[in-house]
Amino acid sequence: MSEVTQVQHRITEVPSSIGIRTAPFALEVSGISKSFAHRRRETKVLSDVSLQVEPQEFVSIVGPSGCGKSTLFHIIGGLEQPDSGTVSMNGNVVTGQRGMISYMPQQPALFPWRTIEENVLLATEIAGQVRDTAREEARHWLAKVGLAGFERAYPHMLSGGMQQRAAFLRALLAPQELMLLDEPFSALDALTRSEMQRWLLELWEENRRSVLFITHNIEEALLLSNRIYVFSGRPGSILQRVDIPFPRPRREEIIDSPEFLNLKRQLSQWMREEQAKKPLT
Amino acid sequence: MRSTWKLIWPPLVAVIFFLAAWQVSVSLFHIEKWILPSPTDIAGEFSGNAAGIGAHTLATLRLTMIGFPIGIAVGLIVALLLHLIPWAKRSFYPLIILSQNVPSIALGPLLIIWFGFGLLPKIVLITLVCFFPVAVAAMGGLAQSDRMMMNYMKMAGASKWQIFTKLELPSSLPSMFSGMKISASYAVMGAVVAEWIGADKGIGVYMLLQKSAYRTDRMFVAIMIIVLLSLVLFALIVLLEKWLVRWKPRRNS
User: Fold this and answer.
1) What's the CA gap between A81 and B48, in Å, rounded?
2) How far apart are CA A39 and CA B147, in angstroms?
3) DSSP codes, B2-19
4) Would you call B247 and A114 a contact, using CB atoms and an 8 Å cutoff?
5) pLDDT per position as a tens digit, B33-44
6) What's the burial of B86, exposed, middle or buried (CB within 10 Å: 0-12/13-18/19+)?
């Protein structure tokens, strides 16, 4: 019962908060559209996408493959310019600016010539921060995520899950507050994946950062998020915005609860409908 | 230890087989020593007359050891400059490719007219032969860094210089070393050719002398020394690579 009231509370809260917000959004994307010219044909990839991430909120994007999620990340990260729309962080318009977010890509993309510790420190190094304190913090965190003893190892000596944890630490230790996680677990096997989900859930609840998370996996999104945006197929636009009511701290057991299964069914339904609209190519 | 032996024995057997066939055919078909000396003849000449060729070898070695590093340095500098200045790459890269259609070795006589008979024309020749493989390989390596890592660097707000030093340079090291390995064998060849054109000492000079005397066996000894010098240079580059590119996964693991 308490979950239901929370949903309602959330929904009523949003419209009233638009006018008199005290704290600005960690990330606010408004009206982003983007097309690419490919072989003289314009392909619209994103159509009028607006979404918000509150400070210390975990927000997920789910959608069919090719819905422009990665393009959206590239726009937020400043790699691409949108055709229209703006990206704001903490109340400032930062459209097209780089270095505003901390990023974890699909593949770990650890630098093979750097040791794990040096990889984890890369983002702080780019930001030009003091090395000694950062190094100490990195050591502390490496031990905490089960990578103690691997500080001097090169990435190829680690398993896929360990590499992903190192890539996550690299993003976590970056000075930027907002983290973008781009399908970070998609390359892992099912067992490692669920282990990593649990790990991320615990870690995030301990030190809440603002997170925007892309995934294909509905269960993963439900388990981790405060809010989920469901994307349509190409051109990507927001179909549904779902607030997830489960209280924090969450435990993995909630995936067996009826509410969880209901939400999962509903989201799967939307995703299936979207996938079905796509012309088979 | 056993795996190295596994790697070594097939080529070793092939070489032994080749030498044996050579030895047998020379004696079987009664080939004159001045046309094709047998391996034992060559080995005998090599061990019996090592002192005569020692000074020449040292001269060639010295020439190579001056010319090769200069050639590598020029190649790397050209690659870095063209990489960092995009308009320079667009305008000069095609010219550099085109310039390789000029056989560098044929420039030798010209270089002598321009720079005299001293060390300079020889160094220039070795540099011309060596810089190209290094420059092309290094440029390829610099331009082909991993896209995911490049995206990461850009999103993290890395400057052009940070991208260059932290991503492009380290990721191009293996390519640079493959260029240098090719240049290593060119360098000794370049030195010998430079000596043919005009020198008073060196393996090249020694070969010319032995040619006039029809001492085919001694020419084979000279060739052997050239091969050995190239191999040593190659091995040096491989060692340097192993030391600098420690992070690379072993191929057999």
Assistant:
1) 76
2) 22
3) HHHHHHHHHHHHHHHHHH
4) yes
5) 888 898 888 888
6) exposed
Q: Are B152 and A101 a contacting pair at CB < 8 A?
A: no
Question: Cβ contacts (< 8 Å) between B151 and chain A: which residues?
Answer: 74, 77, 79, 103, 105, 109
pLDDT over 60 (residue A17): no
pLDDT at A20: 53
Q: Of B108, B134, B136, B104, nearest to B121 (Cα)?
A: B108
Predicted confidence (pLDDT) per residue in A146-170, tens digit: 888 888 899 998 888 889 889 988 9
CA distance B221 to B45: 7
CA R_g for chain B: 22
Residue A14 has pLDDT above 70, yes or no: no
Alpha helices (runs of H) in B107-215, residue ranges in sequence order:
108-115, 119-143, 147-155, 160-163, 169-197, 203-212
Can you say whether residue B163 is alpha, beta or left, with left for phi > 0 and alpha for psi between -120 and 50 degrees?
A: alpha
CA angle B186, B224, B2 (to 5 degrees): 90
Of A79, A105, A126, nearest to B162 by CB-CB distance is A126
Q: Which amino acid is at B210?
A: Q
Measuring CA to CA, which residue among A54, A17, A180 is closest to residue B152? A180
User: Cα separation of B211 and A127, whole Å?
Assistant: 66
How far A4 CA sits from the closest chain B CA (Å)?
39
**Residue B249: cis peptide before it, omega within 30 degrees of 0:** no
From the CB of residue B43, how many other CB atoms can be counted at a distance below 10 Å?
A: 16
Decide: A33 and A49 in contact? Cβ < 8 Å.
Answer: yes
Closest of A111, A90, A110 to residue A100, by C-alpha: A90
Q: What is the mean pLDDT of residues A200-213?
A: 87
Residue range B188-204: mean pLDDT, rounded: 89
Question: What b-and-e string marks burial along B26-39, b requiring 16 or more CB atoms within 10 Å of the CB?
Answer: beeeeeeeeebbbe
B103 has a pLDDT exceeding 60: yes
pLDDT at B181: 93
State pTM to two decimals: 0.80
| pLDDT interval class at B138 (50, 70, 90) | very high
